[in-house]
Amino acid sequence: MSKKKKHFSLLLTTLLTISMALSACGGNNNTKNTTGTGGNNAAATNTTTDAPDTKPAEEPVELIWYTIGAPQKDLDKVMEEVNKYTLDKINATLDVKMIDFGDYTQKMQVMVASGEPMDILFTCSWAFDYVQNSRKGAFLQLDDLLKDQGKGIVDTIDPAFLEGSKVDGHNYAIPANKELPAQEVYRFNKELLDKYNLDLTSVKTLADLEPLLKTIKDNEPEITPYAMVKDFMPVMPFDYVIEKMPMAVYMDTKDYKVVNILETPEIKEALQTVRKFYQAGYISPEVATTTSVDDLYKAGKWFTDRAATQPMADNLWSASYGYPVVSTPAGQPYIYNWSVMGSMQAISANSEYPEKAMEFLNLLNTDPVLRNMIDSGIEGVHYEKISDNMIKNLPDAKNYDMPTFSLGNIMINYLNEGDPENKWEEFKTFNDSGINAPLLGFNFDTSNITNEIAAVQNVKEEFWAPLMTGSVDPDEYLAKANEKFKAAGLDNIIAEAQTQIDAWKAANNK
Amino acid sequence: MSAKPIKSRDFHQLSSVWNIVFNCIAGAFSLLCVFPFLFVVLISFTDEGALARDGYKLIPAKWSLEAYKYVFGTGDTLLRSYGVTIAVTVIGTMVSLLLISLYAYAISRKSFKYRKFFAFFAFFTMLFNGGLVPTYIIVTQMLGLKDSIWALVLPLAMNAFYIIILRTFYITSVPDPLIESAKIDGAGEFRTFLRIVLPLSLPGLATIGLFSTLGYWNDWFNALLYIDNPNLVPLQSMLMRIETSMQFILQNSQNSSLSLEALRSMPQDTSRMAMVVLATGPIIFAYPFFQRYFIQGLTVGAVKE
Amino acid sequence: MGKIGRSAKDIMRNKVLLFMVLPGTLWFLFFSYLPMVGTVIAFKEYRFSRDGFWASIIRSKWVGWDNFKFLFSTNDAFLITRNTILYNTAFIVLGLIMSVLLAVVLSEIANKKLAKLYQTGMFLPYFLSWVVVGYFAFSFLSSERGLLNQLFGSHISWYSESKYWPFIIIFVYLWKAVGYNSVVYLAAIMGIDKSLYEAAMIDGASKFQQIRNITLPLLNPIIIIMTLLAIGKIFYADFGLFYQVPRNSGTLYSVTNVIDTYVYRGLKTTGEIGMSTAAGLYQSVVGFVLVLASNYIVRKFDKDSALF
Question: Distance (Å, rounded) from C-alpha A124 to C-alpha A173?
Fold first, then answer.
């Protein structure tokens, strides 16, 4: 038996060594290839200075950058310009690869696990998870680089971002300077609001919506009064240990006790309200499987819903729907872990040029010329300037439409035609109004309880949507769900979370 | 030469009542299968506003070509994707037919001493695989195929499932005595294979050829893994990318910046259906090419002389 | 010495056939067997390392069977295993009957043009991705606007009534797969020596006697092989069918949760590749054992039809 085992492990080691040796050769070839083909421009400008005695440090470096978003047709064209600029500024060029939103997590997981060469990569709380991958060792720890090459970043962006995105006390990525807190608002279709002369000032909670919804339901049979999707959850006074899982602490907690939210009176009350709405027909009967109500928005056949806001969001919504939308706050602007980690750029653990990568990120977050070029493309092709800091899209802009929020500091961007002059001041005000959620800075380490998480996750998916959208009777199903959660090991997770939170609390003098 | 088999099929006819019953069965099932596709085509020609207002309707209230204009508006990307898909499908089908037919032939021969070993060697891979990451490393780092058309061709070139099916076809449709007599006549393995086995197994080869063509045409996953260069992305992969990204954005709409920015450039329902139509249309026309081998049958008698 | 000599002789005698399997063997080595080394991740807590994948594997911590536990430690373990096996059994049996039936029907239709048309139609569902099939099913089953409720004036909330779903799932599967699978049987029928039918006609056999006594027995080998191969996949479920088509509706999980959807949902937050590899290994091993057992039984009855 043991002999067999020995044989097996011998075979395994041999195979491993062979494949490692082979992949090492392959890997080398690969890097040569990338620099060979991708660095054409750089090579062209550089051949003259390519004397044998040049120091290697002076050779331009090509940084491989994976970021999120639909691949853009004019990417190469814009990058040619960008590279001229960066070559001049920091003696580096970029090889940008865009991976679309839906593919990003999966593709990055495979590429990072396989050690694909890369320098900079996008990460956040909702795609290629930042905290987990930091812990698994995907990213380079940036504390020292930030002091040195990244000094500009530290000086420019809101310090709450760097502070809030620390994992176990270290920074692993540069957050984009954008809206810091997350705030929920109730949105309304203004045409209907005006038609029935409805007043928003009294709307503070979900229950306050009742009379308005009733008016719409009674008078407008064609309209869905509350446009809800299956991800809906009433605004609750909790900060969750893991988003949308039933472990949380109260927002105003002093002792940081982790509670099972299914056992709290608050959830019971909120769900009874939702259930009432559901039974009254304010919500679509199929809400528990509805992932999108986009068709309602397009046709203007909704009255209210809830959404996450940011400064001037009403304008953006109205512009994109083609009819006026107004909103009123549904909760406080809280700064959560996930809102701080909404968009970040990390340096890969296997980067060959971490200093250069940081130099580039520094430039991206502080230099308006570079930032705007990457965001909006080439002046005269994709946009034209209508004033010092305001631009207008040209028809070709559709060939270069980048997701602005994903590419670093948004507050040094030009304003778009129609934006108010004080747009970025509004953002700063909004950020200053943010209240720290109690668990800000605490990142749950799930490695001891992965089995429980897997089981609880399945229970959650089974019960969450029907329960939260009022599709089932909370009096009956809350208990049922709770029982199944417990059977799946929820109490173990809560105990583990409590231990970690207590340790974190002690370490941070909370 | 072609007159004789047709006559022999006349022999083989059903009474007219049963013929009608059989037509009904096949026709009904076929209709059931075509119906959704017609629906997709209809939606693609529906006006977006009408769709949002009335939902899916058999006869749309308002027709529109907007969806196709939108898809073609992406310009040369679409045509290039067609090019990539067609190239990969044609090259891939040829490569895989070659590899599979040879392998299957060898393990179908009773005289091959190692046939059981190689049959098992192939079969084992149907059940066990190393997972995504190791395969990715072999393809990109060892074989250096990243961002190359071969990364779309080679990973699908062999398939134990097809090999085993084709082996069964060889065994059942080529009688052993025929091979033995060819041997006695002094024909080598290759000659026997080309002259006797292949012509007799045309329905089987056409089946594998068809499966492999469809496999290549529909494949999007290899491109997701191995292709970064937008110019090498095949059609289905482009379609799938847009589809999954849309679902992803909708599921993460709690994220304000994501929903505000990304939703705006999202394609409409009708455009997505138009893409399904554009991605499926051409391959349906390729279908009859294979079909004649398993509907009309072969002039088997002529080959066997 | 003699042994080696004999082996060398064997190799020489089989060299042409060996040469024929060579390209395929190389392919299997590179694309299947070499990556299998990565299966050790199933027994590791995988963490990245700077020096690439293999170094990461070696440096990651051994965790024994821990990665497998999540498949068995829950109350859902029985449910997902039962669902996976029962659905696949239904797919294998019903799929086989319908595919063979359609193949026979198509082969007997007198008008070949019509037969081609029918067959082309049957193939179309294969081209629609599960996402699109999901939309389509929704346009039928939506409780507000769905065609079914409109047609029958009913108010059934399809996506929350689990009792209908075993039938819906099986129906949708057959709808999508039968046209594709019947091609294999159709091609096998076309490969049958026509003189057999002619001889039967002369003996006065009716059409149905021909089908029973010639067509079906000669289809036997391919039927057995297709079934054996399907048994190997009995622990795998088609993710899209069980996730997209029921719109991931929680109230239907008792009849739609299968191993693949369970693993997907369970690992969404933690993304442990060790655990997903473990799940895949578990599915493979069970399938492998089942195929070996079935193959053994087949060999007892019909040596030529067995897999190996």
Answer: 9
Distance CA A212, CA A197 (A): 10
Do A29 and B144 lie within an 8 Å CB cutoff? yes
Q: Residue B14's pLDDT is what?
A: 65
Q: Helix or strand or coil: residue C145?
A: coil
In degrees rounded to 5, what are phi and psi of residue A63? -100, 130
* Inter-residue contact A60 to A87 (CB < 8 Å): yes
DSSP A299-331: HT-EEEEEEEE-TTHHHHHHHHHTS-EEEEESS
Chain C contact partners (≥3 CB pairs within 8 A): A, B
Question: Residue A380 region, left (φ>0) first, then alpha (ψ -120 to 50), else beta?
Answer: left
In the prediction, which pLDDT does B283 show? 83
Q: What per-residue confidence (pLDDT) applies to B259?
A: 66
d(CA C158, CA C249): 10
Q: Is A376 helix (H, G, I), strand (E, B) or coil?
A: helix
> Each residue of A144-202: pLDDT tens digit?
999 999 999 999 999 999 999 999 999 999 999 999 999 999 999 999 999 999 999 98
Please indicate whether, in this complex, the C-beta atoms of C247 and A289 are within 8 angstroms of each other: yes
Q: What is the DSSP string of B22-46?
A: HHHHHHHHHHHHHHHHHHHHHHHTB
Whole-number pLDDT of residue B254: 65
Q: In residues, how long is chain B?
A: 305
Find, among C124, C182, C130, the residue nearest to B283 by Cα: C124
For C191-238, where are the alpha helices, taking DSSP H only?
194-202, 207-210, 216-232
Provide DSSP, A458-469: HHHHHHHHHHHT
In degrees rounded to 5, what are phi and psi of residue B254? Answer: -65, -25
Count of beta carbons in the 10 Å neighbourhood of residue B211: 20
* Bridging pattern class, strands C61-62 and A183-189: unpaired
Average pLDDT over residues A250-262: 95
Task: Note the helical H segments in A341-390.
Answer: 354-366, 368-376
Q: What is the mean pLDDT of residues C276-290?
A: 94
Alpha carbons A175 and A124: distance in angstroms, whole number: 8
Cβ under 8 Å to C: B residues 13-52: 13-15, 18-19, 22-23, 25-27, 29-34, 36-37, 39-40
Task: Return d(Cα C42, Cα B141) in angstroms, integer.
Answer: 22
CA distances from A26 to A30, A440, B150, B219 (A): 6, 44, 16, 26
Beta pairing, strands A120-123 & A344-347? antiparallel
Nearest CA of chain A to the CA of B116: how many Å? 24
Chain B hits for C14, CB-CB cut-off 8 Å, are 112-114
Q: What is the mean pLDDT of chain C?
A: 90
Convert the pLDDT of each residue in C172-207 to its tens digit: 999 999 999 999 999 999 888 888 888 888 888 888
| Minimum Cα–Cα distance from A32: chain B residue | B144
Q: Is the pLDDT of residue A11 over 80?
A: no
Chain A residues 406-435 with a CB less than 8 Å from chain C: none
**For the residues A444-459, what does the mean pLDDT come to?**
92
Residues facing residue A120 across a β-bridge = A65, A347
pLDDT at A373 over 50: yes
Look at residues A436, A429, A407 and name the one whose alpha carbon lies nearest to residue A337. A436
* Total length of chain A: 510
Token code pair at residue B182: 């060819």
**Section A11-40 average pLDDT:** 42
CB spacing of A113 vs C37 below 8 angstroms: no
Q: Which residue do the tokens 């005289």 mark? A: B111
**By the 8 A CB rule, do A271 and A480 touch?**
no
Q: How far does B278 lie from chain A, in Å, by closest CA?
A: 20
CA distances from A400 to A76, A178, C234 (A): 10, 21, 47
Taking only the tens place, the pLDDT of each residue in A406-419 is: 999 999 999 988 88
